[in-house]
Inverse folding.
């Protein structure tokens, strides 16, 4: 009896060749993301501490808003500062709360022995990571939603436009999502929940406080002595007996090239938020905190002036308006990139089988 070998196409059910790598484990599905997000949110909603935290947040933001509004009313100040100050306070409070919402999402489940149950299902690592990120972000947005009544009230006092108000809220929400993504990445990298929480707070401090310190410390590194144009009283005029008159002359001066290090301020969440809420074209000396921060940051980005002003004899120069290009798109893009890196690290660390595990790590 003659037999024939019939070649089969790769992937045919009767093909004895070993199948190729399974790409489904790396895919992401809306159903899987939704399942993880719903499970995470249900656990938070059932927790009594979650409700207490929302109530304390509401009371704290309300108290600060009332105190700020009352202080400006009592002192006869400009109430347009209220919105900027309240929004900055909400951002600062959010940067304190957001790390706790995602920095223990993965290693906490691993220590409890529940993460392995999810990993042996059809859920992909991307489903688990994105679902946990969306749950943490939704929890952060709940705190922001609680603050909206006070933000709207302070915005009605002035200091922003309708477009500026909505843009500020959207950017604030994205910044909270970035912090949650960074915390999720550290949660996947470290075995202990305390370690991931500390690392997340260090990352937040690096973006907010340490970036300002580094900018100040790097100033001597970008300072050089150059020959520049100066508008003032020259040394020859001061040595003579003639009347002091301001004039333009060339002299040696120390010049700080802040245009080389301005990006250290651009990544700061407070600078980003101030730049989104500022109204271009206003005098920063008579406007709110947003315009003041935007003007100072743009001066740093522009670097040293073409002519150094040293004429103290003349009257004060006329006010200048700040009409430079916005900074917040660059800073927000850098923060979103950091959040994307954190999410990518979490997805990679959730893949099974594990190659190495830290000592004492519980799998199931």
């Amino acid at each position: 009896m003659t037999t024939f070998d019939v070649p089969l196409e790769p992937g045919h059910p009767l093909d004895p060749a070993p199948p190729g790598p399974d790409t489904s484990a790396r895919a992401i599905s809306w159903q899987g993301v939704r399942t993880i997000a719903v499970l995470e949110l249900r656990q938070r909603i059932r927790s009594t501490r979650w409700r207490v935290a929302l109530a304390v947040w509401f009371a704290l933001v309300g108290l600060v808003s009332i105190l700020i509004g009352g202080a400006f009313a009592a002192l006869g100040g400009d109430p347009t500062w209220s919105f900027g100050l309240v929004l900055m306070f909400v951002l600062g409070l959010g940067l304190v709360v957001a790390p706790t919402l995602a920095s223990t999402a993965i290693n906490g489940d691993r220590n409890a022995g529940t993460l392995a149950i999810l990993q042996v299902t059809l859920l992909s690592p991307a489903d688990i990571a994105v679902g946990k990120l969306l749950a943490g972000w939704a929890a952060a947005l709940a705190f922001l939603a609680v603050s909206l009544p006070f933000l709207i009230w302070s915005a009605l006092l002035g200091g922003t436009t309708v477009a500026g108000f909505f843009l500020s809220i959207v950017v604030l929400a994205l910044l909270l999502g970035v912090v949650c993504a960074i915390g999720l990445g550290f949660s996947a990298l470290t075995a202990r929940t305390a370690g991931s929480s500390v690392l997340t707070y260090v990352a937040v401090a690096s973006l907010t406080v340490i970036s300002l310190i580094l900018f100040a410390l790097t100033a001597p590194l970008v300072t050089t002595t150059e020959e520049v144009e100066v508008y003032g009283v020259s040394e020859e005029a001061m040595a003579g007996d003639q009347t002091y008159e301001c004039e333009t002359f060339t002299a040696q001066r120390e010049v700080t090239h802040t245009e080389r290090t301005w990006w250290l301020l651009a990544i700061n969440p407070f600078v980003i938020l101030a730049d989104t809420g500022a109204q271009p074209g206003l005098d920063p000396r008579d406007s709110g905190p947003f315009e003041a921060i935007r003007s100072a940051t743009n001066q740093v980005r522009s670097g040293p002036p073409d002519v150094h002003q040293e004429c103290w004899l003349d009257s004060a120069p006329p006010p200048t308006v700040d009409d430079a290009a916005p900074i917040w798109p660059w800073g927000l893009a850098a923060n979103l990139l950091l959040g994307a890196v954190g999410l990518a690290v979490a997805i990679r660390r959730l893949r099974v089988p594990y190659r190495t595990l830290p000592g004492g790590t519980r799998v199931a």
About this structure: The chain has two domains: 27-216+326-349, 224-309. The chain has a mean pLDDT of 81. DSSP finds 14 helices and three strands in the chain.
